[in-house]
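anyone else get weird line breaks when pasting these?? whatever heres mine. first is seq + C-alpha cells for prot A
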Amino acid sequence: MATAKGPEAVDPDVATEALREALMSVGIVLPSLAADAASDLGLVSLGRVRAAVAMRLADVVRQKSGAGA
C-alpha cells in the first residue's frame, strides 16, 4: 500500500512479507512471491500460480470488497 511519502517509500521486502502473511491468513500461498531484487522500482513479483489458486485469490478479493461472486 502506498504511503503519504509515495509508493517508492515502501520497502519491497517489507511489502512482500506483509502480502505473504495476509494471503496465508486466508489460506493462499503464492510460492514465487518475492521482492524483485533486479528492479530499482520497488517491485514485488507475484509469480505464477495454478488456476485454482488464482480463482481462490479472486474469490477472497471479491468477498473483501463486497462484490460477491
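and prot B, same format (seq, then C-alpha cells)
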Amino acid sequence: MLAPDIKAFSSIWRPKIQSDLLASRVISALWHTREHYVASVIARARNENAVIDAVIESDQIETVRHVLQHFQALLSLPTERADELGNEPLAFVKAHGTRRARAGVPLLAVLQAYRTGHKSFWSAICGTINRFSATAESSLQTTMLLSDYCIDYTDLISTTVTESYLAEQALLTAQRARVGFAVVDDLVRGEPLRTPEALALCAAEGICDGRAMVMAVAKQSGPASAKQLVSQERGKLALAIENALPRSEFGRIVELRLDEIVAVVSCPESAGERTVAAIRARISQINNSASEAFCVGIGLDVRDVTALPRSYAEALAAIDLLGVDQQVSHLAEVSIDTYLRSTPDETARRLIPPWTKAIKVKRHMLTLQAFADSSLNVKACANILNVHTNTIYHRLNRIQQLTGINPRTYVGLTHLLTAVSISSALEVRLAPEAEFASNEEMPGRRSWKGAAANYRVPVRRWT
C-alpha cells in the first residue's frame, strides 16, 4: 500500500495520463528504455554543478542506481505499476537526502542536481513525444500534460529530499554537539580520544598528528564582576567564530566550555597566523553577534595532538598579556622577554631581591620603564614623563641608593626591570589563590589546575 501523500499523487495523475493515449504510449516506451538515459542524466548534472561533479566522482555506482530509481518512480507512479514500488515508493529519495547530509554535501547542491535531473528527464520525454505524435495538436496537448506531471514530481521529490536532509542534519548537529564538547574537553585536558565518534570527528576536521594545529579561546573581557555571557549569547558568539573559519580553509571544532569558547583549529601550515588573520578579518561580524565585550587568544602551533593543552594555555596567555590592548591576540606577538618576565616560576620568586619592594612605587616604576623606552637617554625620558631632567637624575640616583644597582647601565636597568616585573607578576597570580585557598570548589570560579597547569600561565604586566 502506498504512503498517503504518494497515494494521492498517484491517484491524481494516473487517470490523467491514462486518458491521453499519446502520454500513455510515451510513458510505456520510456519505461522499456529507461536505462539508456541514465548516463546522459549524470553527465549533465556533472557538467552543470562542480560540487555534484566531485560528489559523483566518488559515488558513481550509487549515483547510477539512484538515477535509475528516479526513472522507475517517475514512470510508475502514474500507471498500474505504482503498487509495485512498495509501501514507500520514495524511500530511495529519503535515503539519498540522509546520505548527502552525512557526506556534508550542501542542500542547495542536492536540489540543483534534482533540477538538472528534471531537465534531463524532460528532454527524454520531449524526444519520445516528437517520435510518436501524429499531429501538432496532440503533441502540444501531451507535452503540456506531461510537463505539469514532471513539475509536480520534481516538487514532490524535492520536498521529500529536503525534509530527509534537514532531519538528518538536525540529528548530526545534535550528535556533533555532544561529541564535539567531549572531544574539546579531552583535548584541552590532554586526555586520549577513545570513542569511534570522537576519532571520526577529529579525522574529519584534520585534528591529527602531522598537521599544524592551534587552540583559540574567546572569553568575556572587562572586570571580573561583570555579568557573565549567558549560554545563548555565547552560542551566537561561537557560531560567529566558527563562520569566520570556513571549512574550505580550516578544520575546526568550536565548542562552549565553562565560561569560554574553545576552538581547535587545523590546517596544513601556519595554523596560528591563519586563524588570527581570519578572525581579525571578520571581527566586525563577530562583534555584532556578542552583546558583551570579549577577547580572543590564539596559542602557538603544535603538530602533536597531545601538545594541544600547551596551545590552550598559550591562548590564555595571549589574552592575559595582550587582551587589554587588542581584541584578538596571538602569543607569537608577545616578545620573549615580556613572556619570561610575566610567567615566573617558584624558583624565580625565590630569586627576587629584597630591595624590589623598596622601588615598587609608581614614580620609580614609571621612570625605569620610560628610561628603557628612551634608550637610556635622560632628556628623552623626561619628555616622556613630562618632568624636568633633574627629576629623572634624582629618581635614578635614589633607585641606585635603594638597590645598589646602577640603572644608567644596560645590565643594571635590565636587572631592575626584570626583578620588578617578576615580583608584580607573582603578586597578581598569587592573590586569587590566597583569597580562595579555603574553597577550591567555589562555584563559577576557574581553576588553573588540570592539564593546562603543567604549563606556565602568564599574568598581566604592571603598567
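btw re prot B: The radius of gyration is 34 Å. Residues 136-189 form the longest helix (54 residues).
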